[in-house]
């Protein structure tokens, strides 16, 4: 409900206390919590529902080593309390959906998120949603939600590369910018976005590209769709048409394997996927989605067994187009165009789960070219 949003009463003696807060030698986080708690969020501000799922943004140092930490150790509520100024951007309500490192992200959490967001928008409980998330699988959650939620209200994912206890933790700045983008009217109708390190990325194109750097998210080919700084939000690319698939009603996704191609590749993993009951295979192919002759023969066996095979690429940029080096028509294969293997897997899972099963129809959903 509206009243449940973080609206804090303006305390008497605000200016005196704020002045004290500025000179007291309290730690930054405790100080920020105090200050933000004393400033009332205006009723005219947009309502942003924060859904916390875990990740390094909720990480805390662990004594096992100088750099060790556990992701998903701080709650969403604590996280918000450490970001001064949010109350000037939006009225926030925080809910904890999970508290896991995103290497453990799974379809149950995806369905929980999708249902919660759908309900919040349908019942007009929120004007936008911000999801705090680990960075390892952020692009996958973003793409899943972008595909199943048709609403034009903003949905922003953000996270951090450094845990909350690190020197120069990036979580608070990313959180601030995510709420700023969520609260900006121009963000409507742009699908699910990832806001990290001053950049705004579309779910379709964004990928994590560096193991540890703050500047890890990159959008393939054309780059980010916008930028954000403490003063402004700017979009410099038009909104992309979204692929839409209905949320499967039974909340189940079929098994789809991603198989990574390499020199000297045989068909062992492909045959194993067929034997163990995969409904689909996505190949992270070499270059333009290529595989060896031996692997292609394995893919032929998979297609004959009724498994849908999508060719994607292990290369980070460019399109995998139909019938270039591989005769997709003859082999009955689908080309992923600009979806990377992990996102192609999600789209194939959703299509199979909603009874789109022929390679021709699946190719249509992936797109047939621009
Ligand atoms: N920076 C991060 O968030 C990495 C962490 N492993 C996660 O994805 O939860």
UniProtKB/TrEMBL annotation:
The record's annotation in CDD domains points to:
L-asparaginase_II (cd08964)
Active site as annotated = 56, 135
The family database entries (Gene3D superfamilies) matched by this protein are listed as:
3.40.50.40, L-asparaginase, N-terminal domain (3.40.50.1170)
- The reply to whether Hydrolase figures as a keyword in the UniProt entry is yes
Report the superkingdom from the record: Bacteria
**Residues that, per the record, bind substrate:** 102, 135-136
Q: Which PROSITE patterns match?
A: ASN_GLN_ASE_1 (PS00144), ASN_GLN_ASE_2 (PS00917), ASN_GLN_ASE_3 (PS51732)
Which residues are in the Asparaginase/glutaminase C-terminal domain? 255-366
Q: Name one GO molecular function term.
A: asparaginase activity
Q: What sequence ranges are listed for the domain L-asparaginase N-terminal?
A: 47-237
What keywords tag this UniProt record? Answer: Hydrolase, Plasmid
Family annotation (InterPro entries): AsnASE_II, Asp/glu_Ase-like_sf, Asparaginase/glutaminase-like, Asparaginase/glutaminase_AS1, Asparaginase/glutaminase_AS2, Asparaginase_C, L-asparaginase_C, L-asparaginase_N
Q: Which GO terms describe its biological process?
A: asparagine metabolic process
Q: Which family does it belong to?
A: Belongs to the asparaginase 1 family.
Which named protein is this? Answer: L-asparaginase
């Amino acid at each position: 409900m509206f009243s449940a949003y973080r609206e804090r009463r303006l305390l008497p003696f605000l200016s005196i206390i704020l002045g004290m807060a500025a000179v007291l030698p309290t730690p930054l986080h405790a100080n920020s919590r105090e200050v933000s708690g004393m400033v009332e969020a205006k009723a005219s501000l947009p309502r942003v529902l924060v859904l916390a799922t875990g990740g390094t943004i909720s990480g805390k140092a662990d004594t096992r080593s100088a750099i060790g930490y556990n992701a998903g150790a701080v709650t969403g509520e604590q996280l918000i309390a450490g970001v001064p100024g949010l109350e000037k951007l939006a009225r926030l309500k925080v809910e904890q959906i999970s508290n896991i490192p995103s290497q453990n992200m799974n379809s149950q959490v995806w369905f929980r998120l999708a249902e919660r967001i759908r309900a919040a928008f349908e019942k007009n409980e929120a004007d936008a949603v911000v999801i705090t998330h680990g960075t390892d699988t952020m692009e996958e959650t973003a793409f899943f939600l972008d595909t199943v939620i048709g609403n034009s209200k903003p949905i922003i994912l953000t996270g951090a590369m450094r845990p909350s206890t690190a020197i120069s933790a990036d979580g608070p700045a990313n959180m601030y910018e995510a709420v700023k983008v969520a609260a900006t009217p121009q963000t409507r109708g742009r699908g699910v976005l990832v806001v990290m390190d001053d950049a705004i990325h579309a779910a379709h194109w964004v990928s994590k590209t560096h193991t540890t750097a703050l500047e890890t998210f990159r959008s393939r080919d054309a780059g980010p769709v916008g930028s954000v700084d403490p003063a402004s939000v700017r979009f410099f690319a038009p909104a992309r048409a979204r692929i839409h698939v209905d949320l499967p009603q039974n909340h189940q996704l079929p098994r789809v394997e991603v198989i990574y191609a390499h020199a000297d590749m045989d068909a062992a993993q492909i045959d194993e996927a067929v034997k163990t009951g995969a409904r689909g295979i996505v190949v992270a192919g070499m270059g333009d989605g290529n595989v060896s002759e031996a692997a292609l023969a394995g893919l032929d066996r998979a297609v004959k067994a009724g498994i849908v095979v999508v060719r994607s690429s292990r290369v980070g940029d460019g399109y995998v187009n139909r019938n270039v080096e591989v005769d997709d028509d003859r082999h009955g294969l689908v080309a992923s165009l600009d979806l990377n293997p992990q996102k192609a897997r999600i789209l194939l899972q959703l299509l199979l789960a909603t009874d789109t099963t022929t390679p021709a129809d699946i190719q249509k959903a992936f797109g047939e070219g621009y």
